[in-house]
Amino acid sequence: MRAAFSLAQEVARVLGSGQILQQAVPKQPLRGAALMTTLRLILGDQLNHRHSWFASVDETVIYCLFEMRQETDYVVHHIQKVTAFFLAMRAFGAELTDAGHRVYYLRLDDEQNSQGLEENLIRTIKRHKADRFEYQLPDEYRLDRQLGDICARLPIATGAVDTEHFFTKRAAVDTFFGAKSYRLETFYRHMRRTHDILMDDGKPAGGSWNYDKFNRKKLPATTTPPEPLLFASDAAHLTAMLAKEDVKTIGTMALDTCTWPVTRDESIALLDYFVAACLPHFGQYQDAMTTRSWSLFHARLSFSLNTKLISPSEVIEKAVTRWQQRPDEITIAQIEGFVRQILGWREYLRGVYWARMPQYRTLNYLEHRNPLPSWYWSGETKMACLHHSISQSLQYAYAHHIQRLMLTGNFALLAGVHPDAVDEWYLGIYIDAIEWVEMPNTRGMSQFADGGVVGTKPYCSSANYIDKMSDYCSTCQYLKKERMGIRACPFNTLYWHFYDRHRDKLANNPRIGMAYRTWDKMESSRQKGILAQAETYLADIESL
């Protein structure tokens, strides 16, 4: 960790990120305010330096950014998430100012800050005598509706533009599939063809579209992942402000380091580090889990992507270029696994979100009603896999996709937790969790609450899968092969309980027929013992 931190400090020193973070963002109207006629809003996840808005300086335009309790309080967020967003917003505002743009920035503790978007916009429009208001289309439905309602009430002209970030438009998935079922693989292949990525004369590079079968390896004991690249940071002033303003958060953070890039230069540095140090082994170990490394070979670029500090096109281009330059070092399986996550999964989930909202947030196909165990907020559970994954999430605001899907999500699904509670937890604890990407992942892929819109089956497992892909089970108090008894792994008993109680909804699913055939072959007494053990665990879930 120390070696990586030293490298990060050097990167941050060269890039001058410390100066950016310390530069004051103007709180008062800048010179020539009388000339300003158009107010443009920039949300905290719209920090796109390459947007056409910023191609030239226009004295008649003023850009506004607001830190607001509206955004810090709608769920309880991780301290690193709130801090990273504010650091990134402040740096972006400062960089716009340095480039000659006119910027009005409200910090959370500014007296003029009403803490709500509508009130802040109305005050800012009046303050600068704006006769036109413009914004970039939000990625979250709630903000899209809020801005639409605000514009309908404003007495001045309004307009909205695209964020110029994604490969696709909002309606792309719905338009592509129409009345047909949404399927990632079909959409992904369409995206590959459309954008000519990993294609050779109209055919997939390497001869296959999908190399998942090569990308499901457990991390060998002899393989040591690279240390994560971190960045020097001075966050003490921000954490002090959040404490003073009584903003409730979860998790912890170091005040002298930042796990996440908060500027474009830092984001590019992390991208460069990934393609050089991690991409050669990314694909094959992307599903692996271990106590020996919290970042493994993952890119950790999701915060930069979701705040638009970097674009998906430049991320893919740089990774593919590296693969083309080093085919002996990076196999097609490594690069295809990475491209699939960004070009396929990320664009696909965004399309599903916009096609199905607002109804999507209410879906609960399995009718789950149980509360989330309190140890999801502390990591204090005897199950080694969940203890490690939740503790890691609280420390770094991060867990990779298999930890989220097959550990924390898997357990919540098996335990029958209400998808609203699962959504709230994921949305708060992870640095990259913005509703458009979090909700289809959680309510759809993880909890099967959409009944099969995103995933074709529930993604659940017993301890067998967890042991196959991790080193957690070797140190766990529970026994990975046991299904009954006080030391039986809860995943084992709850797995069969889940399928038994949802037989009416799942038995005809062709992808899970084997589970029911295996269950039906068990002796009746064994079935009753497993179900009784599961009921015991569910009745006292806080003690697991």
Total number of strands? 11
**CA-based gyration radius:** 24 Å
| Tally of contiguous helical segments | 22
Strand arrangement, major sheet: 4-2-1-5-6
Q: Averaged pLDDT, please?
A: 91
At CATH level 3, the topology of the largest domain is Serine Threonine Protein Phosphatase 5, Tetratricopeptide repeat
Major sheet: 5 strands, parallel
Q: What general outline do the C-alpha atoms trace?
A: globular
**Helix and strand composition category:** alpha/beta
Strand content: 5-15%
| Overall domain count | 3
Helix and strand arrangement:
Blueprint: H1 2-15, H2 17-22, E1 38-41, E2 61-66, H3 69-72, E3 77-78, H4 79-98, E4 102-106, H5 117-127, E5 132-136, H6 141-153, E6 157-161, H7 172-177, H8 184-195, E7 199-200, E8 203-204, E9 231-232, H9 236-244, E10 249-250, E11 257-258, H10 264-282, H11 302-306, H12 312-325, H13 332-356, H14 384-396, H15 401-414, H16 419-429, H17 435-446, H18 463-469, H19 490-501, H20 503-506, H21 513-521, H22 524-539
Parallel strand pairs: 1-2, 1-5, 2-4, 3-10, 5-6
Antiparallel strand pairs: 7-8, 9-11
Describe what this molecule looks like in 3D.
The chain is of the alpha/beta class and 544 residues long. The protein has three domains: 14-161, HUPs (Rossmann fold, 3-Layer(aba) Sandwich), CATH 3.40.50.620; 172-358, Serine Threonine Protein Phosphatase 5, Tetratricopeptide repeat; 374-543, DNA Cyclobutane Dipyrimidine Photolyase, subunit A, domain 3 (Orthogonal Bundle). It has 22 helices and eleven strands. It has helices spanning 2-15, 17-22, 69-72, 79-98, 117-127, 141-153, 172-177, 184-195, 236-244, 264-282, 302-306, 312-325, 332-356, 384-396, 401-414, 419-429, 435-446, 463-469, 490-501, 503-506, 513-521, 524-539; strands at 38-41, 61-66, 77-78, 102-106, 132-136, 157-161, 199-200, 203-204, 231-232, 249-250, 257-258. The strands form four sheets. It has a five-stranded parallel beta sheet, with helices on both faces. It has a two-stranded parallel ribbon with strand order 3-10. Strand 7 (199-200) and strand 8 (203-204) form a beta hairpin. Helix 19 crosses helix 22 (524-539). The radius of gyration is 24 Å and the shape is globular. The two termini are 32 Å apart. Mean pLDDT is 91; it is low at 1-33.
